[in-house]
Specification:
Elements lengths: L7 E11 L15 H8 L10 E13 L5 E2 L11 E3 L7 E4 L10 E3 L2 E5 L4 E6 L3 E2 L1 E5 L12 E9 L3 E2 L6 H9 L4 E9 L12 E11 L11 E3 L9 E6 L4 E5 L19 E7 L5 E7 L7 H5 L2 E5 L2 H7 L3 E6 L2 E5 L5 E5 L3 E4 L4 E10 L2 E2 L3 E7 L20 E2 L7 E3 L3 E8 L12 E9 H5 L12 E5 L10 H15 L12 H6 L1 H9 L16 H12 L12 H6 L27
Parallel strand pairs: 24-32
Antiparallel strand pairs: 1-2, 1-14, 2-3, 2-4, 2-5, 4-7, 5-6, 6-9, 7-8, 8-12, 10-11, 11-13, 13-14, 15-16, 16-17, 17-20, 18-19, 18-21, 21-22, 23-25, 25-26, 25-30, 27-29, 27-31, 28-30, 31-32
Protein backbone atom coordinates (compact mmCIF):
# COMPACT_ATOMS: atom_id res chain seq x y z
CA UNK A 1 0.00 0.00 0.00
CA UNK A 2 3.10 2.25 -0.34
CA UNK A 3 3.12 5.49 1.67
CA UNK A 4 -0.63 5.06 2.33
CA UNK A 5 0.20 2.84 5.26
CA UNK A 6 -1.10 3.26 8.81
CA UNK A 7 2.57 3.77 9.77
CA UNK A 8 3.65 6.96 8.03
CA UNK A 9 4.96 10.47 8.60
CA UNK A 10 3.98 13.75 6.97
CA UNK A 11 6.20 16.74 6.31
CA UNK A 12 5.91 20.26 4.93
CA UNK A 13 8.24 23.04 3.84
CA UNK A 14 9.79 24.42 0.68
CA UNK A 15 11.61 22.94 -2.29
CA UNK A 16 14.01 24.53 -4.74
CA UNK A 17 14.03 23.68 -8.43
CA UNK A 18 16.68 25.57 -10.40
CA UNK A 19 16.41 24.37 -14.02
CA UNK A 20 18.20 25.98 -16.91
CA UNK A 21 15.36 27.05 -19.19
CA UNK A 22 17.05 27.89 -22.48
CA UNK A 23 16.50 24.28 -23.52
CA UNK A 24 12.71 24.67 -23.18
CA UNK A 25 12.51 26.08 -26.71
CA UNK A 26 13.29 23.75 -29.60
CA UNK A 27 14.37 26.55 -31.92
CA UNK A 28 17.24 27.41 -29.55
CA UNK A 29 18.79 24.04 -30.43
CA UNK A 30 19.68 25.41 -33.88
CA UNK A 31 23.29 26.57 -33.56
CA UNK A 32 23.08 28.56 -36.80
CA UNK A 33 20.30 30.87 -35.59
CA UNK A 34 20.64 30.63 -31.81
CA UNK A 35 21.99 34.10 -30.98
CA UNK A 36 19.55 35.92 -33.22
CA UNK A 37 16.52 33.97 -31.98
CA UNK A 38 17.56 34.17 -28.34
CA UNK A 39 17.90 37.95 -28.49
CA UNK A 40 14.70 38.31 -30.50
CA UNK A 41 12.61 36.18 -28.10
CA UNK A 42 13.98 37.73 -24.91
CA UNK A 43 15.77 34.63 -23.73
CA UNK A 44 14.44 32.43 -20.92
CA UNK A 45 13.25 33.05 -17.37
CA UNK A 46 16.14 31.16 -15.70
CA UNK A 47 18.94 30.85 -18.27
CA UNK A 48 21.73 30.20 -15.75
CA UNK A 49 19.89 27.61 -13.73
CA UNK A 50 22.12 24.95 -12.18
CA UNK A 51 19.59 22.12 -12.55
CA UNK A 52 19.59 21.60 -8.77
CA UNK A 53 16.61 20.17 -6.87
CA UNK A 54 16.61 20.23 -3.06
CA UNK A 55 14.48 20.25 0.08
CA UNK A 56 14.41 23.60 1.91
CA UNK A 57 13.47 23.76 5.61
CA UNK A 58 11.15 20.75 5.47
CA UNK A 59 9.95 19.50 8.85
CA UNK A 60 7.97 16.49 10.04
CA UNK A 61 4.50 17.74 10.99
CA UNK A 62 2.79 14.50 12.05
CA UNK A 63 3.57 10.84 12.68
CA UNK A 64 0.96 8.08 12.41
CA UNK A 65 1.02 4.71 14.14
CA UNK A 66 -0.13 1.20 13.29
CA UNK A 67 -3.17 1.44 15.58
CA UNK A 68 -4.54 4.45 13.64
CA UNK A 69 -3.52 7.07 16.19
CA UNK A 70 -1.20 9.98 15.39
CA UNK A 71 0.53 12.94 17.01
CA UNK A 72 1.80 16.39 16.10
CA UNK A 73 3.46 16.80 19.52
CA UNK A 74 7.23 16.51 19.71
CA UNK A 75 6.96 15.81 23.44
CA UNK A 76 5.04 12.64 22.55
CA UNK A 77 7.34 11.54 19.70
CA UNK A 78 10.73 13.20 18.99
CA UNK A 79 10.40 12.62 15.23
CA UNK A 80 7.92 15.51 15.04
CA UNK A 81 9.89 18.59 13.99
CA UNK A 82 12.86 16.69 12.54
CA UNK A 83 14.04 17.69 9.09
CA UNK A 84 13.47 15.96 5.80
CA UNK A 85 16.66 16.94 3.98
CA UNK A 86 18.81 16.00 1.03
CA UNK A 87 22.50 15.11 1.11
CA UNK A 88 24.98 16.91 3.35
CA UNK A 89 27.93 15.16 1.70
CA UNK A 90 27.51 15.85 -2.02
CA UNK A 91 25.87 18.29 -4.41
CA UNK A 92 22.08 18.49 -4.73
CA UNK A 93 19.94 16.25 -6.88
CA UNK A 94 19.09 17.33 -10.42
CA UNK A 95 15.83 18.21 -12.17
CA UNK A 96 15.80 16.72 -15.66
CA UNK A 97 13.42 17.20 -18.59
CA UNK A 98 13.05 14.41 -21.11
CA UNK A 99 12.87 16.57 -24.22
CA UNK A 100 11.97 20.13 -25.25
CA UNK A 101 8.75 18.68 -26.65
CA UNK A 102 8.00 16.67 -23.49
CA UNK A 103 8.54 18.85 -20.45
CA UNK A 104 5.58 17.46 -18.53
CA UNK A 105 7.45 14.58 -16.89
CA UNK A 106 10.47 16.27 -15.33
CA UNK A 107 12.49 13.75 -13.32
CA UNK A 108 14.48 14.11 -10.11
CA UNK A 109 17.85 12.39 -10.39
CA UNK A 110 20.53 11.67 -7.78
CA UNK A 111 18.60 12.90 -4.75
CA UNK A 112 19.37 11.68 -1.23
CA UNK A 113 16.54 11.75 1.34
CA UNK A 114 17.35 11.98 5.06
CA UNK A 115 15.37 12.24 8.27
CA UNK A 116 17.74 14.19 10.48
CA UNK A 117 18.09 16.45 13.50
CA UNK A 118 20.89 18.28 11.71
CA UNK A 119 23.62 16.12 13.28
CA UNK A 120 22.40 12.52 13.27
CA UNK A 121 20.27 10.81 10.65
CA UNK A 122 17.40 8.55 11.70
CA UNK A 123 17.34 7.13 8.18
CA UNK A 124 18.85 8.02 4.82
CA UNK A 125 18.90 6.64 1.31
CA UNK A 126 18.81 7.49 -2.41
CA UNK A 127 15.57 8.54 -4.06
CA UNK A 128 14.97 6.28 -7.05
CA UNK A 129 14.71 8.47 -10.18
CA UNK A 130 11.09 9.40 -10.82
CA UNK A 131 9.08 11.94 -12.81
CA UNK A 132 6.19 14.10 -11.69
CA UNK A 133 2.63 13.23 -12.72
CA UNK A 134 -1.00 14.28 -12.12
CA UNK A 135 -0.15 17.80 -13.30
CA UNK A 136 -3.06 20.25 -13.22
CA UNK A 137 -3.91 23.92 -12.93
CA UNK A 138 -4.59 23.95 -9.22
CA UNK A 139 -4.62 27.68 -8.46
CA UNK A 140 -7.85 29.33 -9.60
CA UNK A 141 -6.35 32.84 -9.32
CA UNK A 142 -2.91 33.29 -10.78
CA UNK A 143 -1.90 36.53 -9.01
CA UNK A 144 1.70 37.29 -9.98
CA UNK A 145 1.98 36.05 -13.60
CA UNK A 146 5.42 34.63 -12.80
CA UNK A 147 4.01 32.38 -10.05
CA UNK A 148 3.21 28.89 -11.23
CA UNK A 149 -0.52 27.95 -10.94
CA UNK A 150 0.22 24.27 -11.62
CA UNK A 151 0.65 21.47 -9.12
CA UNK A 152 2.00 17.92 -9.46
CA UNK A 153 3.23 14.95 -7.44
CA UNK A 154 6.34 12.81 -7.22
CA UNK A 155 6.25 9.26 -5.88
CA UNK A 156 9.18 6.90 -5.58
CA UNK A 157 11.11 4.74 -3.13
CA UNK A 158 14.05 5.43 -0.84
CA UNK A 159 16.46 2.49 -1.05
CA UNK A 160 18.77 1.04 0.04
CA UNK A 161 18.11 2.37 3.53
CA UNK A 162 20.67 3.25 6.17
CA UNK A 163 19.08 3.39 9.63
CA UNK A 164 20.33 5.36 12.58
CA UNK A 165 19.26 4.93 16.19
CA UNK A 166 15.50 4.39 16.21
CA UNK A 167 15.06 3.24 19.79
CA UNK A 168 13.97 6.62 21.17
CA UNK A 169 10.87 6.92 18.98
CA UNK A 170 7.76 4.78 18.93
CA UNK A 171 7.16 5.87 15.35
CA UNK A 172 10.63 4.97 14.08
CA UNK A 173 10.45 1.62 15.84
CA UNK A 174 7.16 0.83 14.08
CA UNK A 175 8.39 2.15 10.71
CA UNK A 176 11.56 0.08 10.85
CA UNK A 177 9.59 -3.03 11.77
CA UNK A 178 7.12 -2.38 8.91
CA UNK A 179 9.84 -1.76 6.28
CA UNK A 180 10.67 -5.46 6.00
CA UNK A 181 12.01 -5.14 2.44
CA UNK A 182 14.49 -2.41 3.33
CA UNK A 183 12.65 0.31 1.40
CA UNK A 184 10.52 3.35 2.15
CA UNK A 185 7.86 4.89 -0.08
CA UNK A 186 7.87 8.67 -0.46
CA UNK A 187 5.33 10.90 -2.16
CA UNK A 188 5.20 14.69 -2.21
CA UNK A 189 3.07 17.42 -3.75
CA UNK A 190 4.72 20.50 -5.26
CA UNK A 191 2.95 23.77 -6.02
CA UNK A 192 3.25 27.53 -5.58
CA UNK A 193 6.50 27.65 -7.56
CA UNK A 194 7.96 31.15 -7.98
CA UNK A 195 9.54 32.12 -11.34
CA UNK A 196 9.89 35.84 -10.53
CA UNK A 197 13.64 36.55 -10.42
CA UNK A 198 13.04 39.87 -8.61
CA UNK A 199 11.74 38.10 -5.49
CA UNK A 200 13.75 36.33 -2.76
CA UNK A 201 11.52 33.27 -3.25
CA UNK A 202 12.71 32.82 -6.86
CA UNK A 203 12.99 29.09 -7.76
CA UNK A 204 11.25 28.09 -4.49
CA UNK A 205 7.87 26.43 -4.06
CA UNK A 206 5.69 24.71 -1.47
CA UNK A 207 6.04 21.02 -0.73
CA UNK A 208 4.11 18.64 1.52
CA UNK A 209 4.73 14.92 1.57
CA UNK A 210 4.41 11.51 3.19
CA UNK A 211 6.80 8.63 3.90
CA UNK A 212 5.86 5.05 4.78
CA UNK A 213 7.14 1.51 4.20
CA UNK A 214 7.48 0.10 0.68
CA UNK A 215 7.43 -3.50 -0.51
CA UNK A 216 9.00 -5.38 -3.41
CA UNK A 217 5.71 -6.58 -4.86
CA UNK A 218 4.35 -3.02 -5.25
CA UNK A 219 4.91 -0.49 -8.02
CA UNK A 220 7.41 2.18 -6.99
CA UNK A 221 5.85 5.22 -8.63
CA UNK A 222 2.12 4.96 -8.00
CA UNK A 223 -0.32 3.51 -5.49
CA UNK A 224 -1.63 0.02 -6.15
CA UNK A 225 -5.09 0.86 -4.88
CA UNK A 226 -8.24 2.75 -5.86
CA UNK A 227 -7.97 5.63 -8.34
CA UNK A 228 -10.54 8.38 -8.57
CA UNK A 229 -10.83 11.02 -11.27
CA UNK A 230 -13.06 12.96 -13.60
CA UNK A 231 -13.32 16.38 -15.19
CA UNK A 232 -14.28 18.59 -12.25
CA UNK A 233 -12.65 22.03 -12.21
CA UNK A 234 -11.86 22.10 -8.49
CA UNK A 235 -10.62 18.54 -7.99
CA UNK A 236 -7.89 16.42 -9.56
CA UNK A 237 -7.07 12.71 -9.74
CA UNK A 238 -6.37 10.99 -6.41
CA UNK A 239 -5.62 7.54 -4.94
CA UNK A 240 -6.80 5.71 -1.86
CA UNK A 241 -6.36 2.23 -0.37
CA UNK A 242 -8.61 -0.07 1.62
CA UNK A 243 -6.53 -1.71 4.35
CA UNK A 244 -8.63 -4.71 5.31
CA UNK A 245 -6.18 -5.76 8.03
CA UNK A 246 -6.24 -2.38 9.76
CA UNK A 247 -9.91 -1.94 8.78
CA UNK A 248 -9.25 1.54 7.46
CA UNK A 249 -9.64 3.55 4.29
CA UNK A 250 -6.61 5.80 3.72
CA UNK A 251 -7.15 8.46 1.05
CA UNK A 252 -4.77 11.04 -0.42
CA UNK A 253 -6.39 14.38 -1.25
CA UNK A 254 -3.01 16.16 -1.27
CA UNK A 255 -2.96 17.07 -4.97
CA UNK A 256 -6.71 16.84 -5.50
CA UNK A 257 -8.18 20.05 -4.06
CA UNK A 258 -7.87 23.43 -5.76
CA UNK A 259 -6.33 26.50 -4.12
CA UNK A 260 -7.27 30.17 -4.49
CA UNK A 261 -3.72 31.25 -5.35
CA UNK A 262 -0.44 29.44 -6.11
CA UNK A 263 0.77 27.87 -2.88
CA UNK A 264 -2.26 29.26 -1.05
CA UNK A 265 -5.01 27.83 1.13
CA UNK A 266 -7.32 25.12 -0.14
CA UNK A 267 -10.58 26.32 -1.64
CA UNK A 268 -13.75 25.75 0.33
CA UNK A 269 -15.77 23.84 -2.26
CA UNK A 270 -18.39 22.49 0.12
CA UNK A 271 -18.96 19.61 2.51
CA UNK A 272 -16.67 16.84 1.27
CA UNK A 273 -17.12 13.15 2.01
CA UNK A 274 -15.61 9.95 0.67
CA UNK A 275 -17.71 6.87 0.07
CA UNK A 276 -19.00 4.52 -2.60
CA UNK A 277 -21.81 4.25 -5.14
CA UNK A 278 -24.03 1.34 -4.20
CA UNK A 279 -24.90 -0.57 -7.37
CA UNK A 280 -27.43 -2.63 -5.42
CA UNK A 281 -29.28 0.43 -4.19
CA UNK A 282 -30.11 2.42 -7.34
CA UNK A 283 -26.53 3.74 -7.52
CA UNK A 284 -27.07 5.70 -4.34
CA UNK A 285 -24.00 7.44 -2.91
CA UNK A 286 -23.08 6.06 0.52
CA UNK A 287 -20.65 8.23 2.55
CA UNK A 288 -17.98 6.62 4.72
CA UNK A 289 -16.54 9.74 6.35
CA UNK A 290 -16.14 13.51 6.18
CA UNK A 291 -12.95 15.05 4.82
CA UNK A 292 -11.44 17.61 7.21
CA UNK A 293 -9.80 19.73 4.51
CA UNK A 294 -11.21 23.02 5.84
CA UNK A 295 -9.54 22.73 9.24
CA UNK A 296 -6.71 25.29 9.76
CA UNK A 297 -3.30 23.75 9.03
CA UNK A 298 -4.81 20.48 7.81
CA UNK A 299 -2.89 20.41 4.52
CA UNK A 300 0.54 20.95 6.08
CA UNK A 301 -0.19 18.64 9.02
CA UNK A 302 -1.48 15.71 6.96
CA UNK A 303 -0.09 16.31 3.44
CA UNK A 304 -3.72 15.85 2.44
CA UNK A 305 -3.85 12.21 3.65
CA UNK A 306 -6.77 11.19 5.85
CA UNK A 307 -7.69 7.84 7.39
CA UNK A 308 -11.24 6.60 7.91
CA UNK A 309 -12.28 3.60 10.05
CA UNK A 310 -14.29 0.87 8.28
CA UNK A 311 -16.56 -1.78 9.71
CA UNK A 312 -16.98 -5.21 8.13
CA UNK A 313 -20.06 -4.15 6.18
CA UNK A 314 -18.25 -1.16 4.66
CA UNK A 315 -15.24 -3.29 3.73
CA UNK A 316 -17.54 -5.74 1.94
CA UNK A 317 -19.41 -2.94 0.17
CA UNK A 318 -16.37 -1.13 -1.23
CA UNK A 319 -14.89 -4.42 -2.47
CA UNK A 320 -17.32 -4.45 -5.39
CA UNK A 321 -18.56 -0.89 -5.75
CA UNK A 322 -17.11 2.25 -7.30
CA UNK A 323 -15.58 4.64 -4.77
CA UNK A 324 -16.26 8.36 -5.02
CA UNK A 325 -15.72 11.72 -3.35
CA UNK A 326 -18.86 13.81 -2.99
CA UNK A 327 -19.41 17.54 -2.51
CA UNK A 328 -22.59 18.38 -0.66
CA UNK A 329 -23.76 14.82 -1.20
CA UNK A 330 -23.20 14.71 -4.96
CA UNK A 331 -20.39 12.51 -6.38
CA UNK A 332 -17.62 14.75 -7.69
CA UNK A 333 -14.78 12.42 -8.67
CA UNK A 334 -14.94 8.63 -8.76
CA UNK A 335 -13.44 5.41 -10.06
CA UNK A 336 -13.99 4.27 -13.61
CA UNK A 337 -17.01 2.04 -14.28
CA UNK A 338 -16.24 -1.43 -12.97
CA UNK A 339 -13.40 0.00 -10.87
CA UNK A 340 -10.84 -0.73 -13.61
CA UNK A 341 -7.45 0.95 -13.74
CA UNK A 342 -4.21 0.44 -15.70
CA UNK A 343 -0.92 2.20 -15.09
CA UNK A 344 2.74 1.83 -16.00
CA UNK A 345 5.17 1.99 -13.09
CA UNK A 346 8.22 3.60 -14.71
CA UNK A 347 6.83 5.85 -17.43
CA UNK A 348 9.85 7.78 -18.80
CA UNK A 349 12.43 6.10 -21.04
CA UNK A 350 15.46 7.07 -23.11
CA UNK A 351 16.34 4.63 -25.88
CA UNK A 352 19.01 4.24 -28.53
CA UNK A 353 18.19 2.49 -31.82
CA UNK A 354 17.91 -1.23 -31.13
CA UNK A 355 17.13 -0.75 -27.42
CA UNK A 356 13.98 -2.11 -25.82
CA UNK A 357 11.93 -0.72 -22.97
CA UNK A 358 10.37 -3.31 -20.68
CA UNK A 359 7.40 -1.34 -19.35
CA UNK A 360 5.79 -2.92 -16.29
CA UNK A 361 2.00 -2.52 -16.37
CA UNK A 362 -0.43 -3.11 -13.52
CA UNK A 363 -4.15 -3.76 -14.05
CA UNK A 364 -6.52 -3.58 -11.11
CA UNK A 365 -10.24 -3.81 -10.46
CA UNK A 366 -11.59 -2.23 -7.28
CA UNK A 367 -7.97 -1.92 -6.12
CA UNK A 368 -7.10 -5.61 -6.56
CA UNK A 369 -4.79 -7.02 -9.24
CA UNK A 370 -7.03 -8.39 -12.00
CA UNK A 371 -5.97 -11.68 -13.56
CA UNK A 372 -6.47 -11.79 -17.33
CA UNK A 373 -7.30 -8.09 -17.56
CA UNK A 374 -7.20 -6.96 -21.24
CA UNK A 375 -5.09 -3.85 -21.83
CA UNK A 376 -5.24 -1.80 -25.02
CA UNK A 377 -2.08 0.11 -26.01
CA UNK A 378 -2.13 3.04 -28.44
CA UNK A 379 0.11 5.85 -29.62
CA UNK A 380 -1.06 9.09 -27.99
CA UNK A 381 0.88 12.34 -28.63
CA UNK A 382 -1.79 14.56 -27.05
CA UNK A 383 0.29 15.44 -23.99
CA UNK A 384 3.47 16.26 -25.93
CA UNK A 385 4.28 19.88 -26.71
CA UNK A 386 4.48 21.09 -30.29
CA UNK A 387 2.92 24.00 -32.15
CA UNK A 388 4.95 27.20 -31.70
CA UNK A 389 8.12 25.34 -30.81
CA UNK A 390 7.90 22.62 -33.46
CA UNK A 391 10.64 21.84 -35.91
CA UNK A 392 10.46 22.26 -39.69
CA UNK A 393 7.63 20.15 -41.15
CA UNK A 394 8.46 16.45 -40.91
CA UNK A 395 6.45 13.29 -40.40
CA UNK A 396 6.94 11.62 -37.01
CA UNK A 397 8.73 8.38 -37.90
CA UNK A 398 6.91 5.21 -36.92
CA UNK A 399 9.88 3.37 -35.45
CA UNK A 400 8.54 2.09 -32.10
CA UNK A 401 7.35 -1.51 -32.33
CA UNK A 402 6.07 -4.08 -29.87
CA UNK A 403 2.30 -3.71 -29.74
CA UNK A 404 -0.79 -3.82 -31.93
CA UNK A 405 -3.69 -1.55 -30.87
CA UNK A 406 -6.10 -4.14 -32.28
CA UNK A 407 -4.76 -6.89 -30.00
CA UNK A 408 -4.98 -6.25 -26.26
CA UNK A 409 -2.32 -7.42 -23.84
CA UNK A 410 -3.62 -9.80 -21.17
CA UNK A 411 -2.33 -9.11 -17.67
CA UNK A 412 -1.32 -12.28 -15.84
CA UNK A 413 -2.35 -11.95 -12.20
CA UNK A 414 -2.72 -8.24 -12.84
CA UNK A 415 0.76 -7.71 -14.28
CA UNK A 416 1.96 -7.40 -17.86
CA UNK A 417 5.14 -6.29 -19.59
CA UNK A 418 4.89 -4.03 -22.61
CA UNK A 419 8.06 -4.47 -24.67
CA UNK A 420 8.80 -1.51 -26.93
CA UNK A 421 11.70 -1.75 -29.39
CA UNK A 422 13.22 1.40 -30.90
CA UNK A 423 14.41 1.88 -34.44
CA UNK A 424 16.39 4.80 -35.85
CA UNK A 425 14.37 8.05 -36.13
CA UNK A 426 16.94 9.28 -38.68
CA UNK A 427 17.11 12.85 -37.42
CA UNK A 428 13.55 14.09 -38.20
CA UNK A 429 13.90 17.25 -36.09
CA UNK A 430 17.20 18.23 -37.73
CA UNK A 431 18.88 20.02 -34.81
CA UNK A 432 17.15 18.20 -31.93
CA UNK A 433 18.42 14.66 -31.46
CA UNK A 434 15.90 11.87 -32.06
CA UNK A 435 12.15 11.89 -31.61
CA UNK A 436 9.79 11.78 -28.62
CA UNK A 437 6.74 9.50 -28.40
CA UNK A 438 3.70 8.99 -26.21
CA UNK A 439 2.30 5.48 -25.69
CA UNK A 440 -0.83 4.97 -23.59
CA UNK A 441 -2.05 1.73 -21.96
CA UNK A 442 -5.75 1.74 -20.99
CA UNK A 443 -8.29 -0.85 -19.84
CA UNK A 444 -9.90 -2.40 -22.92
CA UNK A 445 -13.37 -1.76 -21.50
CA UNK A 446 -12.70 1.98 -21.55
CA UNK A 447 -11.09 1.91 -24.99
CA UNK A 448 -14.08 0.13 -26.48
CA UNK A 449 -16.75 2.03 -24.53
CA UNK A 450 -15.50 5.32 -23.08
CA UNK A 451 -18.97 6.53 -22.01
CA UNK A 452 -18.90 7.54 -18.36
CA UNK A 453 -15.16 6.87 -18.11
CA UNK A 454 -12.24 9.15 -17.51
CA UNK A 455 -8.61 8.88 -18.58
CA UNK A 456 -5.84 10.47 -16.55
CA UNK A 457 -3.62 12.58 -18.86
CA UNK A 458 -0.53 11.56 -16.87
CA UNK A 459 -1.16 7.82 -17.25
CA UNK A 460 0.97 7.25 -20.33
CA UNK A 461 4.56 6.37 -21.23
CA UNK A 462 6.97 8.95 -22.67
CA UNK A 463 9.92 7.73 -24.74
CA UNK A 464 12.80 9.65 -26.26
CA UNK A 465 14.45 7.67 -29.06
CA UNK A 466 17.86 9.02 -30.09
CA UNK A 467 19.28 8.99 -33.60
CA UNK A 468 22.05 6.66 -34.64
CA UNK A 469 25.47 8.29 -34.35
CA UNK A 470 28.55 6.49 -35.67
CA UNK A 471 30.91 8.88 -37.52
CA UNK A 472 33.91 7.31 -39.22
CA UNK A 473 36.27 9.97 -37.93
CA UNK A 474 36.19 12.38 -35.00
CA UNK A 475 37.48 15.93 -35.26
CA UNK A 476 36.45 19.17 -33.58
CA UNK A 477 35.22 20.91 -36.70
CA UNK A 478 33.76 17.80 -38.23
CA UNK A 479 31.76 16.28 -35.37
CA UNK A 480 32.48 17.72 -31.90
CA UNK A 481 31.94 21.45 -32.42
CA UNK A 482 28.16 21.17 -33.15
CA UNK A 483 27.62 19.08 -30.02
CA UNK A 484 29.70 21.23 -27.66
CA UNK A 485 28.40 24.49 -29.14
CA UNK A 486 24.79 23.40 -28.69
CA UNK A 487 25.44 22.41 -25.09
CA UNK A 488 27.17 25.75 -24.44
CA UNK A 489 24.21 27.62 -25.95
CA UNK A 490 21.58 25.71 -23.99
CA UNK A 491 23.36 25.83 -20.62
CA UNK A 492 24.94 29.30 -20.20
CA UNK A 493 26.05 28.47 -16.65
CA UNK A 494 28.85 26.43 -18.23
CA UNK A 495 30.39 29.64 -19.58
CA UNK A 496 31.58 30.41 -16.06
CA UNK A 497 33.56 27.17 -16.06
CA UNK A 498 34.54 26.32 -19.66
CA UNK A 499 33.69 27.95 -22.98
CA UNK A 500 32.32 24.86 -24.70
CA UNK A 501 32.22 26.67 -28.05
CA UNK A 502 36.02 27.00 -28.07
CA UNK A 503 38.28 24.21 -29.29
CA UNK A 504 41.18 25.61 -27.28
CA UNK A 505 39.18 25.70 -24.03
CA UNK A 506 37.76 22.23 -24.49
CA UNK A 507 41.10 20.69 -25.47
CA UNK A 508 42.83 22.35 -22.51
CA UNK A 509 40.29 20.82 -20.13
CA UNK A 510 40.08 17.40 -21.78
CA UNK A 511 41.03 15.49 -18.63
CA UNK A 512 38.35 16.98 -16.38
CA UNK A 513 35.79 16.72 -19.19
CA UNK A 514 36.69 13.06 -19.67
CA UNK A 515 36.12 12.50 -15.97
CA UNK A 516 32.68 14.13 -15.78
CA UNK A 517 31.47 12.59 -19.05
CA UNK A 518 32.49 9.18 -17.69
CA UNK A 519 30.39 9.47 -14.54
CA UNK A 520 27.24 7.33 -14.43
CA UNK A 521 23.93 9.12 -14.92
CA UNK A 522 23.08 8.39 -11.29
CA UNK A 523 25.93 10.64 -10.14
CA UNK A 524 24.80 14.24 -9.42
CA UNK A 525 28.00 15.53 -11.03
CA UNK A 526 27.35 13.66 -14.27
CA UNK A 527 27.73 15.77 -17.39
CA UNK A 528 25.49 16.69 -19.02
CA UNK A 529 23.45 17.20 -15.88
CA UNK A 530 20.22 17.00 -17.89
CA UNK A 531 21.09 13.72 -19.58
CA UNK A 532 20.60 15.29 -23.00
CA UNK A 533 23.23 13.29 -24.85
CA UNK A 534 22.71 9.86 -26.32
CA UNK A 535 25.07 7.10 -25.21
CA UNK A 536 26.52 7.06 -28.74
CA UNK A 537 27.38 10.77 -28.65
CA UNK A 538 28.76 10.48 -25.15
CA UNK A 539 30.98 7.59 -26.24
CA UNK A 540 32.16 9.60 -29.24
CA UNK A 541 33.03 12.57 -27.03
CA UNK A 542 35.03 10.38 -24.67
CA UNK A 543 36.88 8.81 -27.58
CA UNK A 544 37.68 12.21 -29.10
CA UNK A 545 38.86 13.67 -25.77
CA UNK A 546 41.61 11.04 -25.68
CA UNK A 547 43.00 12.60 -28.86
CA UNK A 548 41.29 15.99 -29.46
CA UNK A 549 42.01 16.46 -33.16
CA UNK A 550 40.96 19.92 -34.38
CA UNK A 551 40.40 19.19 -38.07
CA UNK A 552 39.78 21.73 -40.84
CA UNK A 553 37.62 24.81 -40.08
CA UNK A 554 34.57 25.24 -42.34
CA UNK A 555 34.40 28.24 -44.71
CA UNK A 556 32.91 31.41 -43.18
CA UNK A 557 29.11 31.75 -43.29
CA UNK A 558 27.67 33.95 -46.03
CA UNK A 559 24.32 35.72 -46.20
CA UNK A 560 23.04 33.05 -48.58
CA UNK A 561 24.09 30.18 -46.34
CA UNK A 562 22.45 31.75 -43.26
CA UNK A 563 19.19 32.16 -45.18
CA UNK A 564 19.37 28.53 -46.28
CA UNK A 565 19.17 27.28 -42.66
CA UNK A 566 16.59 29.82 -41.45
CA UNK A 567 13.41 28.50 -39.92
CA UNK A 568 10.25 28.44 -42.02
CA UNK A 569 7.68 31.16 -41.44
CA UNK A 570 5.06 28.62 -40.38
CA UNK A 571 5.40 25.52 -38.24
CA UNK A 572 3.13 22.50 -38.05
CA UNK A 573 0.91 21.45 -35.19
CA UNK A 574 1.47 18.12 -33.49
CA UNK A 575 -0.83 15.31 -34.68
CA UNK A 576 -4.43 15.77 -33.55
CA UNK A 577 -5.32 13.87 -30.41
CA UNK A 578 -7.53 10.85 -30.68
CA UNK A 579 -11.10 11.81 -29.86
CA UNK A 580 -11.07 9.14 -27.17
CA UNK A 581 -8.46 11.04 -25.21
CA UNK A 582 -10.16 14.34 -24.53
CA UNK A 583 -8.12 15.63 -21.62
CA UNK A 584 -8.70 18.38 -19.11
CA UNK A 585 -7.83 21.76 -20.58
CA UNK A 586 -5.47 24.32 -19.16
CA UNK A 587 -2.79 22.00 -17.78
CA UNK A 588 -0.46 21.71 -20.72
CA UNK A 589 1.00 25.18 -21.02
CA UNK A 590 4.69 25.14 -21.73
CA UNK A 591 6.83 26.80 -19.13
Amino acid sequence: MSYLNPVRLHFAGKFQADPSTVNNTTQYYDNATFKELYAQNGGAWNPEGSGAWRFVDCRVTRVCYADGSSTTDRAFDPVVGLRIADSNKRVAGKLVDLDPQQQMCSEIWSLIVRLTDGTLDSFAGPFETAAFYDLWQRAMERGNPRQQPLSAVYQSIIAPLAWGDTSGSRFLTELREAATDGMLSIKFNVDGYDRDSTLPTFTLGRIVGSIGPAYEDEPHQFVLGRHLGGTELHMNYMPCVVDTRARRLIADFGNAIATHKPGGTLMNIGDMTIGYIDANNNNRYMPLGAVSYREPGWYESTAGVQSFPLNEAAIAAVASNVMAVAINGQPFVQENPGGVHVRADQFVYRLSPGDTAEVQLYATQYGVLQDGAPITVVFDPSQLQGSTTSQPPVAVPDILTGFDPAKPILAKKGRAVLTLKAGNPDNPRIYVDGQVYGVRPIPQSIASNPTGSWINPSAFVSLLVWDEYAPKELTWYGQMQPIFTQYGNLYPLMDKIIDLRSYEAVAANKDILSFVFSLPESDPNSMPVTRDLSPAKRAAILKWLKNPVEGTPPPPMTTESVEAVALPETVPDMPKRNELFVMKSGIGEEE
